[in-house]
Amino acid sequence: PEEQFALLEGNLKLIWGPSSGRIQLFDLARDGGERQDLAETRPDAVQTLLRELQRLEQEARSPRPSQQLAPSALDLEQLHSLGYAH
Asked: Largest CB tally within 10 Å, which of 7, 29, 71, 79?
């Protein structure tokens, strides 16, 4: 099976298969069963959502720094107030 990625923004759901280049767009408010592909009739939405999905996919695959950032004083204060930090 092909690897696919999806992005939800409002009522719109974009599905992208990078290997095949297949792109599908659905309006979940009107078509919760994802039967009517709107990719050809909504090219502006496809372009915007695909750009964001590709950015997120690239970000997820990029190496992350091995060092952890220390929590800020505000973070520690909020954690302490919730009983998680002492």
From this structure: 7
